[in-house]
Amino acid sequence: MATKEILRTIITVRFNPGRDLLAVIVSWFLVTGALYTATFIVGSDAAGGMLYFLLYAVVTATLFGVGVPLYWTVVVRKRPLSDLGITTRLLGISLVIQVILGGGQYYATLRDTAFPPTRSCFPFHLRYCHGEIFA
Question: Residue 130 sits in which domain range?
Answer without folding.
Answer: 88-135
